Amino acid sequence: MECADPGGALPLPPPLSLPLSLPLSLSLPLSPPLPLPLSLLLTLSLSLLLTASGCDSLLESSDATATDTPGGVTLASLHDRYLKNCANCHAPGAPGRTDATERTLDFSSVETTRTSLAGKASGLSGNQEACNGVSFLGASYETSLLAAVLDYDVRMSFTAGDGCDADAISDMTVRSGPPPGGFLADLAAWIDAGAR
């Protein structure tokens, strides 16, 4: 049976017969998207709630301290992810500490790490003696002795003081294991942001 178009020009195909029951997932109407004013109201309400609960630092980066980078990398996160491993040698009474271990570094806590990284290498002997007096944290990642002992590429191009170069710098990842994925990039971001 064909139905005629009300204008009479073209015949229409016969009506389709649908099953008597639709699956539950097809029978429920879809919710329309929230109107803009309601979604804006929800966003503002959430912002107000976060601010009132003391979480306003989640909304603005103006509360960042000198140890934070825009991406949220902190010395505490770097310490927890890897630098704490350095305390096996670089901490008072550490089991791996020897007479040749650099004397000023202490990775036993975040605060001792912060304090010691602000200084310069001392107590190194033999091949490494040329690095005595070199800052652990330079003006950039590429000029930081900390980066040079952990990052092969930095170590190969590093030069500071009177002969502190790839030949004088030990690969500390041999003792502490390789840093986890993304760690060196985060360390670079932290140093390059001027974090100390």
Topology readout:
Layout: E1 3-4, E2 11-12, H1 24-27, H2 36-52, H3 75-81, H4 110-117, H5 145-150, H6 152-157, E3 159-160, E4 164-165, H7 173-176, H8 183-192
Antiparallel strand pairs: 1-2, 3-4
Quick gist of this model?
The protein has helices spanning 24-27, 36-52, 75-81, 110-117, 145-150, 152-157, 173-176, 183-192, and strands at residues 3-4, 11-12, 159-160, 164-165.
Summary tags:
globular; 8 helices; two-stranded antiparallel sheet; 196 residues; single chain; disordered N terminus; mainly alpha; 4% strand
Overview of the molecule:
The chain has 196 residues and is mostly helical. Helices cover 32% and strands 4% of the residues. Strands 1-2 form a two-stranded antiparallel ribbon. A two-stranded antiparallel ribbon has the order 3-4. The chain is globular. It starts with a strand and ends with a helix.
